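Hi F.,

I've been meaning to write this up properly since the lab meeting, where we talked about keeping a consistent format for the predictions we share between groups. The idea is simple: the sequence comes first, exactly as it goes in, then the structure tokens exactly as they come out, then a line or two of notes. No screenshots and no reformatting. I'm using this chain as the first example so we have something concrete to point to.
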Amino acid sequence: MLEDNILLRTDSYKAGHYLQYPPGTDSMFSYIESRGGKYDKTVFFGLQYILKAYLSKPVTVEMVKEAAEFFKAHGEPFNYEGWMYVAKDLKGKLPIRIRALPEGTIITTHNMMMSVESTDPKAFWVVSYLETMLLRIWYPITVATQSYSIRNTISFFLKDTSDLPLCDEIAFKLHDFGARGVSSAESAGIGGLAHLVNFMGSDTVEACVFGRKYYNTPMAAFSIPASEHSSITSWGKNHELDAFRNMLTQFAKPGALVACVSDSYDLWNACEKLWGEELKAEIISSGATLIIRPDSGDPATVVLKTLQILDRKFSSVVNGKGYKVLNNVRVIQGDGINQDSIKEILTLAKNNGFSATNIAFGMGGALLQQVNRDTQKFAMKCSSVTVNGKFVDVYKDPVTDNGKRSKPGRLDVVSRGNGYETVRLENTGVNSIEADQSAMRTVYENGELIIDDSMETIRNLVNSGG
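Output, unedited:
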């Protein structure tokens, strides 16, 4: 099947590149980095998925024949003999070595995160051929990075306004609502899982499936019963109270969390009269916590007014830092959420005496879809080849854009103080500098997956500062 053939997961022009390298070329070394962008640090994540989903499947004779037929019709040359060598002589195992930082590593931009190196002189060109597929790691890295940055924003306000340990609150403060806002089920799976490097709340089922299949994690995220507008408005405007009461009847148990969208008709009436008077006793006696979801209007002002109404109706306690924590109820804002609006909401709430404990967020398309490769300026570049037995530096240094200058030579990453630094290897053919100095690990070699981490391992690394 064409869609399952990894030889077709490339750019058209890659098929003919094997003819373009200098005669005598027999090895290649490439690397991936973020060349800057919106965030000054990135969270490395997603390689294990790519390796398991695509590169752990052997190249077959049928794949080679299918690709050859495709590229002939497509108008591009194709290395039929070279790929047949991989399929037959190498038993379909890709002759490359991939070294990478541990997933969950937090590293400043302009540093290598992973390298790809050929292991067979007859198939050195495979490294470049796989660039298109491998560079798609920009997506989970960028989602994980954005989610991490938002986590830091929320953490700042929790530290300022909450008595509770950060670890007891932060994991469920940003809930993924993004499954319907992405371009494919695969994006939902790997993008949603990238968010879960930092948080544990999600309604994106594919993310949990991917966590189980590719990251050895039986359940990567959790959710709670929640209404949508149709499940409330199907009762009719005159029976909104009945719809709300049904939510309590069905789901409000001691210790439970129940979320209910409350702006179908009149949010202020819902908070003031329906939840705050008619159903107040039922909420309190249930032992559950009701989470009210405003879903329209200016996010910051709507959330603040909702908090103020709920404070009047349910009262609050003042914590040790002098901020109000509501009794029995909380608020989740899922409309118009991005990093800037989160900061604005939490700032306004804090300035009016409310702890960030009261507020959680749901984020959809802005979390999983409003990113692209240029958000963090990702690139995969060849930095070294050998020609007639001699190492040759490969790099670009365009006078029109120095930001696109690439790194020459064979490279490694080492720990330096509290961070990391990309260093050049001596051209000795050695795979790495001393193992205790390198921050990189060999994760894949000659068709075999070597490292197989869990989400727990990755989260622990992120939580420790990467």
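Notes:
The chain has two domains: 2-141+376-463, 224-368.
The chain has a mean pLDDT of 95.

If this format works for you, I'll send the rest the same way.

G.
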